[in-house]
Amino acid sequence: MTGRPEGAAWFAGRRATGVVDATSDPARLDAGGWWAVVATFEEEYRFWRFADVRDAPLPPPSGPWRGPAADSWRTSLDEQAYVAGVSQIRHRVLEGEVYQVNLCRVLSAPVDPDADPWALAAALATGNPAPYAGVVDVPAFGGVPATRVVSASPELFLARDGDVVTSSPIKGTGRTAADLLPKDEAENVMIVDLVRNDLQHVCVPGTVEVTALLAVEQHPGLVHLVSTVQGRLRPGAGWADLFAATMPPGSVSGAPKSSALRAIADLEPVPRGPYCGAVGFVDADRGSARLAVGIRSFWWDDGELRFGTGAGITWGSDPQAEWAETELKARRLVGLASGVEPRDGQVVATAAAAAGQEDR
């Protein structure tokens, strides 16, 4: 077969075609079948069940990727507004309202309506390979709107293997391991505690444990601090319970989560959408799932291609350094989406500058 069938998804070396069901109800995932998952940070759920799922590499695109011009990107928070937001969060920490908040901005640019998401996925696979890469490209079906998401996420939100559930939050980013600071380690430990608490709501008491702490992972152009938390689901706990306990992901919200979400609502001018939500698959027949945190991900929305970037803010944050971290996380991916090839782990300056332009 050549070309790309309408309505398809690809995750973890498996290609799914032929949408036969769609829902926004997480409980339906427990009934069986292979489902593609896109959940927004605002906890809007979209699930699609596919008829045909088989092992396959990422399918070739129907043509070259036609992405936005490098100078067409705009940001929901410019540098001045972002730095002010960091200062506001530090004030909230000083007042005892919160310990850590992930402050994010959304980049957007006009995109050709015929731009092929599979071509973007191929460009990212070549220029920024990621452990939880995936694609969801489905038309409107069963009351669930059309959705296009291409992810190069490095972060595991939830894995499920039988009754074992695993989460590997990322907190701490630098160009190299030498850039990681004590602030990054403290931030990671805060989020590990939050993830442990989330999982304890749905796991058998005494089974939630930290199996890896502060591991340094190398990714294209940067490094991350990653920890892993694991537990055993209590009998009868289903997907509705698991999402209710863990969404939105702790690593991209903050601690305490309720206070961090209030700060995010106050300081971020646009919804995050799939960015910082969950993207992946649930194979209910095999009792397995892999859901990534929707970072390093592109999505189509109202004629635009969108991409989010952010940083975790604590009392120890330097506002200008946090802005620079959002630039670092966006630079390579936005460059690839604009057809700017990486050079020695970086991209040329045009796309980087465009990602930081003031929204106007």
Question: What is this entry, summarized?
Answer:
By secondary structure, this protein is of the alpha+beta class. The protein is 25% helix and 36% strand.
Task: Describe this protein's structure.
- This protein is α+β, with helices and mostly antiparallel strands.
- It has a single domain, classed as Anthranilate synthase (4-Layer Sandwich), CATH 3.60.120.10.
- The protein is built from seven helices and 20 strands.
- The strands form two sheets. The chain has an 18-stranded antiparallel β-sheet that branches.
- Strand 7 and strand 8 form a beta hairpin.
- The longest helix is centred in the middle third of the chain and has 19 residues.
- It is globular, with a radius of gyration of 19 Å.
- The termini are far apart.
